[in-house]
C-alpha cells in the first residue's frame, strides 16, 4: 500500500508522579512510550514519505504547563515538543509535515477538550497548504 498519507502518534503513559517518586525503570518506561515510540514511528515512515515528497506526521502533545504532580508526563510532553521541532527541521523541506496538537486536559465529549473538536485540528494540520504549515496547535 505504500507509505501512509498521515500518521497520528497518540500514545502516552499518563500517571501521577511527584519529583523523585518513580524508579529509574518507571521513568524509562514512560519515556519509551511518550517519546521513543514517536521517534521510532517517524524513523519507519518518514523516509518513504520523503521519497514520495508528501506526508503528515502528527503527534498528540499535552502538558502545556509542566506539573510537579505529573513529572514523567511533563517531561515526556516537553520531549515530544522538542522532537516535533527537530523532525520538522529535518523533513519539512522534503515535503513531510511534522506537527503536534497539544491538548491541555482530559479529553471528553462535550467538554473543553471534545474529541470531535480535536480531530478537526488534526484534519486542518493535515490539509494545510505547504506554505501555511503550522508546527503546533494548542487546544
Commentary on this structure:
With about 140 residues, the chain is an alpha/beta fold. The protein has one domain (about 5-139): NAD(P)-binding Rossmann-like Domain (Rossmann fold, 3-Layer(aba) Sandwich), CATH 3.40.50.720. About 45% of the residues lie in helices and about 15% in strands. It has three helices and four strands. The chain has helices at about 25-50, 70-90, 115-125, and strands at about 5-10, 55-60, 95-105, 135-139. The protein has a four-stranded parallel β-sheet, with helices on both faces. Helix 1 (about 25-50) packs parallel to helix 2 (about 70-90). The mean pLDDT is about 95.
Q: In terms of topology, how is this protein built?
A:
Layout: E1 6-9, H1 24-52, E2 55-62, H2 71-91, E3 96-103, H3 115-127, E4 136-138
Parallel strand pairs: 1-2, 2-3, 3-4
Helix pairs in contact: 1-2
Brief account:
By secondary structure, this protein is of the alpha/beta class. The chain has helices spanning 24-52, 71-91, 115-127, and strands at residues 6-9, 55-62, 96-103, 136-138.
Please count the helical segments. Answer: 3
CATH class: Alpha Beta
Q: What series of H and E elements makes up the topology?
A: EHEHEHE
CATH architecture classification:
3-Layer(aba) Sandwich
**CATH fold name:** Rossmann fold
Task: Give the helix level as a range of percent.
Answer: 40-55%
The CATH homologous superfamily: NAD(P)-binding Rossmann-like Domain
Average pLDDT rating: 96
Kindly report how far apart the N and C termini lie. 33 Å
Radius of gyration of CA atoms, rounded to a whole number? 15 Å
Give the amount of beta strand, in percent. Answer: 15-25%
User: What structural class do the secondary elements suggest?
Assistant: alpha/beta
Low-confidence stretches: none
Domains counted in the coordinates: how many? 1
Main sheet strand line-up: 1-2-3-4
Largest sheet: 4 strands, parallel
Amino acid at each position: 500500500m505504500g507509505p501512509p498519507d498521515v500518521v497520528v502518534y497518540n500514545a502516552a503513559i499518563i500517571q501521577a508522579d511527584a519529583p523523585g517518586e518513580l524508579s529509574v525503570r518507571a521513568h524509562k518506561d514512560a519515556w519509551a512510550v511518550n517519546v521513543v515510540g514517536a521517534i521510532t514511528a517517524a524513523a519507519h515512515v518518514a523516509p518513504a514519505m520523503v521519497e514520495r515528497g508528501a506526508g503528515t506526521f502528527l503527534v498528540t502533545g499535552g502538558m502545556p504547563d509542566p506539573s510537579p504532580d505529573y513529572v514523567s508526563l511533563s517531561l515526556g510532553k516537553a520531549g515530544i515538543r522538542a522532537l516535533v521541532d527537530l523532525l520538522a527541521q529535518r523533513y519539512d523541506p522534503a515535503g513531510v509535515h511534522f506537527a503536534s496538537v497539544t491538548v491541555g486536559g482530559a479529553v471528553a465529549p462535550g467538554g473543553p477538550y471534545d474529541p470531535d473538536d480535536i480531530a478537526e485540528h488534526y484534519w486542518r494540520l493535515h490539509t494545510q497548504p505547504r506554505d501555511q504549515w503550522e508546527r503546533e496547535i494548542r487546544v
